[in-house]
Write a structure and sequence with these properties.
16 helices; about 290 residues
Length: about 290
């Protein structure tokens, strides 16, 4: 284990996480699931992320995902597993990753030495991830590592993303932010998903959102205009600091040089992917 420069792990995690997330906005994912007989976009994305946990229902997913509305989840889970098994879903998501990375990055990048290097660096970082109290990381860690470098990179990015996410959930719970308050306060930073994306993908209604804003205002975390107060900004930063602390091991294990190199490679792939339309316009922001 080594000491890293300040925020090195967070700066590496950001592009790595987004390389994982490209799958959830990919039309290739929809195509693969339509072949399985699943066409509802919410069902597709819920099954894609929860499949490593097995044929779970809404309760398990609500606990692990943290910020989804339970009744919304129950409309899709566990019913989706009657159409396609978790094993079939896991195969489909890897096929979708292959198509997505080839479309966004190009065949040359997929076959490049840089891709193979990034995959091995990310896998090395993931060696130091821990299973306890991390259900989404642990479920993915039980899966075999793919052979192809670009699939290895996505698999490793998934391990690192879910490891950080599981830790972030613990930080949210400790801070006393319920699911909608967590989403709304993140949106207020300007870095979270825009409200229409939150409401469209997490199952909450406008009344739920407005009630969360009112609670945050009452706690002194938002002002009358819905902007973060000094206390609110401090709370959001404390959440990131605690998440960094809980997620420090992978990047300390990789070391300063390896972390810097993985950051560089992941940023390069992410810039290319974003330029190719990996993410929809208006995904983040306060409006």
């Amino acid at each position: 284990m080594t000491t890293l420069p300040p925020l090195a792990g967070r700066r590496c995690a950001h592009p790595v996480n987004l390389l994982h997330a490209t799958l959830f906005f990919s039309p290739d994912l929809d195509t693969e699931f339509k072949d399985l007989g699943i066409e509802d976009t919410s069902a597709i994305r819920l099954a894609t992320r929860s499949a490593p946990l097995g044929a779970v229902g809404a309760g398990t997913v609500a606990a692990a995902f943290y910020n989804y509305e339970h009744a919304f989840l129950a409309r899709h889970l566990p019913a989706v597993w009657e159409t396609a098994s978790p094993a079939a879903v896991l195969d489909a998501r890897l096929r979708a990753v292959d198509a997505t990375y080839r479309r966004l990055l190009g065949d040359a990048a997929v076959a490049s030495a840089e891709m193979a290097e990034a995959a091995e660096l990310a896998l090395r970082a993931a060696e130091a991830c821990t299973r306890h109290a991390r259900p989404l990381y642990s479920g993915n860690a039980d899966l075999p590592v793919p052979d192809a470098p670009h699939l290895r990179l996505w698999h490793a990015a998934t391990l690192l993303r879910e490891h950080r996410g599981d830790g972030h959930v613990a930080a949210l719970l400790s801070a006393g932010l319920d699911p909608v308050e967590a989403l709304a306060s993140h949106t207020a930073t300007g870095k979270g998903m825009a409200p229409r994306w939150v409401l469209g993908t997490r199952g909450w209604g406008r009344a739920d959102w407005d009630a969360a804003l009112a609670r945050l205002t009452e706690r002194g975390l938002l002002d009358a205009e819905g902007e973060l107060t000094e206390a609110g900004a401090a709370l959001r930063e404390s959440l990131e600091v605690e998440t960094d602390r809980l997620d420090a091991a992978p990047y300390a294990h990789l070391g300063a040089e390896g972390t810097a190199r993985l950051t560089e490679l992941a940023k390069g792939f992410l810039v290319t992917a974003a330029g190719a339309g990996a993410f929809p316009a208006g995904l983040t922001g306060k409006g």
